[in-house]
Design a protein that fits this description.
This protein is an alpha/beta fold. Helices cover about 65% and strands about 5% of the residues. Strands 1-2-5-3-4 form a 5-stranded mixed β-sheet, sandwiched between helices. The longest helix is centred in the C-terminal third of the chain and has 31 residues.
Length: about 400
């Protein structure tokens, strides 16, 4: 006897919503539970639903349907577009997922995969109701003060570099949320500014998508599969939101505005450094030359150190050393781009590097062994080295001017 919808939902967390003429079963799942995947698959096969909605965006769905999507990366275009940090962050999140799978024999997101394949098998429309993960990360990054951002990024990569086993408490958190929330849970719990884009805004966004789906009148009974931690928020916004769904989606899809002052900082720094050079040469040619030499040695040296830590090709290390003193005086181009492009030319990633990318990035050693991830490391570490060199070199220059050098 085929189990009924009521029987399948008896032991599961869910909400029963009615929006206009559409009935929505909002099913709360555990993203690391094989039971949740089985329940989702069985609910779809009951034939009681005419639409399936899932807590995924287009890029996350693509990653599920095409696990080898990373192998299609145009790495040079990624670096040129300034997307290397975002790709590195995505790899770090993927590495965290892989560690879970390896340690506990579980497959994070199995219930979403079951929903996708179930909808395809039954010929049902599939609605992706979550916000794009890249936009969510950008809004989260911009939501917190600049001095907390390094801690946020550091915490993400520390979770990858750590070889400690993921404890049971972390697994329990995953049963209530998703990989994204779990990775940043400690920060989100301590910061309302971070909690809003990671969790609250997504609740509101998914509720708006469901309201828009209901407004079309094309769906009478919808199965919406979301993490259990989203049930309360989505239920709240679905019932009480007064703003039109399209207006909510537009508002929450808007890229957060950049603060205007940071874009002027590099130019101010360049102006200050060049002014220091002019004053130095005005006072004494030997002093001016010493300041230029210090600038080259410190800035180029630290960029080269970054490239060396990334285990870059010797040609890349030399390029970083030569380029950094110049690129630091030209905010329109960074040494990270130059060094990564040279590394990409000298050590072209092979097909096997892309194929092993997800697996290699689960371990610290793998980030350096894989040619794809190593290019990203070259970009990040030479950029960091040059940034340190700019401020240390600048301090050295003014130390000369004011008699402390």
């Amino acid at each position: 006897m085929t189990p009924t919808v009521e029987h399948l939902l008896a032991q599961e967390p869910y909400r029963h919503l009615r929006i206009d003429q559409t009935e929505i079963i909002l099913l709360g799942t555990a993203h690391v539970s094989p039971v949740s995947a089985r329940i989702v698959a069985e609910l779809i096969t009951t034939g009681e639903f005419d639409t399936v909605a899932i807590e995924l965006c287009m890029s996350r769905q693509r990653a599920i349907l095409d696990p080898e999507a990373m192998s299609k990366l145009d790495l040079f275009s990624v670096i040129r577009a300034g997307q290397a940090p975002m790709v590195a962050a995505s790899l770090a999140l993927g590495a965290y997922q892989q560690r879970l799978a390896d340690q506990y024999g579980i497959e994070p997101g199995a219930e979403m995969r079951a929903a996708i394949h179930g909808a395809l098998d039954q010929g049902l429309p599939l609605a992706l109701i979550d916000r794009d993960i890249g936009l969510t990360l950008r809004r989260a990054y911009r939501a917190i003060p600049w001095w907390q951002r390094m801690g946020l990024i550091g915490g993400l990569f520390a979770s990858v570099m750590s070889r400690e086993k993921i404890d049971e408490a972390e697994i329990e958190r995953l049963k209530e949320g998703d990989i994204l929330e779990s990775t940043f849970s400690e920060f989100a719990e301590q910061s309302r500014a971070l909690y809003e884009p990671l969790i609250d805004e997504r609740d509101r966004y998914m509720a708006a998508h469901l309201r828009k789906l209901a407004a079309t009148g094309n769906s009478r009974r919808v199965l919406a599969v979301v993490g259990a931690g989203h049930l309360k928020g989505i239920d709240h916004y679905a019932a009480l939101e007064q703003q039109a769904p399209d207006a909510v989606l537009t508002e929450l899809e808007r890229a957060p505005p950049k603060a205007r002052w940071p874009k002027y900082v590099p130019w101010v720094v360049v102006g200050v450094i060049l002014t220091g050079f002019v004053i130095g040469f005005t006072r004494n040619t030997e002093l001016g030359l010493q300041m230029v030499l210090d600038w080259i040695m410190i800035n180029g040296g630290l960029a080269a150190v970054g490239a060396t830590i990334a285990l870059a090709h010797p040609g890349t290390i030399l390029t970083a050393a030569l380029a950094a003193p110049l690129t630091s005086l030209n905010p329109t181009i960074g040494v990270g781009f130059v060094a990564a492009a040279v590394e990409l030319y000298l050590r072209k990633p092979q097909v096997g590097d892309f194929a092993q990318l997800r697996r290699d990035t689960t371990s610290p050693r793998g980030w350096w062994r894989n040619r794809v991830s190593r290019v990203l490391l070259v970009f990040l570490l030479t950029t960091l080295g040059s940034a340190l060199g700019t401020y240390i070199g600048g301090a050295r220059i003014f130390g000369h001017l004011f008699g402390s050098g």
